[in-house]
Write a structure and sequence with these properties.
42% of the residues lie in helices and 12% in strands. It has nine helices and eight strands. An eight-stranded parallel β-sheet has the order 1-2-3-4-5-6-7-8, covered by helices on one side.
Length: 265
């Protein structure tokens, strides 16, 4: 899943693809690098980000979604707004990437009525309420971070089913960095294999360029975390169904070589 942020303030590439021409060129770049799915969003999800009205989100993303769909891309729209989701699904998107842990059940109803899929990412609270990158109380998830995340996520998934979605259309993202500190995100990543062995849903993982990766390089800016991002992807690659990344070609090379080496002579 290649990232296309049509925003002025995303944590890593805010402003780079804000214009329609730049965003469409980004879509072309992601597809050329081998992205299986293009994730387009018009609202920053960084900590402290203010919500963006649906009409403003649509002004940023709708033409880009249409362009990507016309290119034959599988497109997900990164939004928590039912209005934005409905318009983008009508424009050719096939999935909604919801970073709110389904705060609004109407979002699931929109997805169900369109026959699309939804990625429900675990979090607690809104982006505006998040205090900072990788800041969260150490004792917030008890002794089993991933187990608590799964339990809370299943509540949201149950609401999605009640809205008419089948299990196969509901995907899980454990939400690294969202209402989690660096230690908690690392603990989830370390034990990500538990999802493959005991979880009936598809799993999306987004570790790319996130602040918890500073555990291995405290001074690294977001675009200086490629090495750690790739290591996280390689570690998780055999245990999840989709990786959400900024650097598609480099990540794909690492995953493909790892698989080749694992095959042996």
């Amino acid at each position: 899943m290649g990232v296309c942020n049509v925003t002025p303030d995303s944590f890593s590439d805010g402003g780079r693809y804000l214009g329609a021409n730049e965003a469409c060129a980004r879509v072309d770049e992601l597809l050329a690098e081998g992205a299986d799915l293009v994730d387009i969003g018009g609202e920053s999800t960084r900590p402290g980000a203010a919500p963006v009205p649906p009409k403003d989100q649509l002004a940023r993303v709708l033409d880009v979604v249409r362009y990507a769909a016309d290119r034959g891309a599988c497109v997900s729209i990164d939004t928590t707004s039912p209005e934005v989701a409905a318009a983008c699904l009508d424009a050719g998107a096939c999935a909604v990437n919801d970073v709110s842990c389904l705060r609004d059940d109407d979002l699931a109803k929109v997805v169900a009525s369109s026959g699309a899929a939804i990625v429900i990412m675990h979090t607690r609270g809104t982006q505006a309420e998040m205090k900072g990158f990788s800041e969260y109380p150490d004792d917030a998830y008890g002794d089993d971070v991933l187990g608590t995340v799964i339990e809370e996520w299943r509540v949201a998934a149950g609401r999605a089913r009640a809205a008419g979605l089948e299990d196969g259309a509901i995907w899980m993202d454990p939400g690294l960095g969202f209402a989690k500190n660096a230690r908690q995100s690392m603990e989830i990543l370390r034990h990500i294999g538990r999802l493959e062995t005991s979880f009936p849903h598809g799993v999306v993982l987004g570790a790319s360029r996130k602040s918890f990766l500073k555990l291995v390089d405290t001074s690294a800016a977001p675009d200086e975390r490629l090495g750690a991002s790739i290591a996280a992807a390689v570690h998780a690659g055999g245990n999840v169904d989709m990786l959400r990344v900024h650097d598609v070609r480099a990540t794909a090379q690492a995953i493909d070589l790892t698989r080749l080496l694992q095959k042996g002579p």
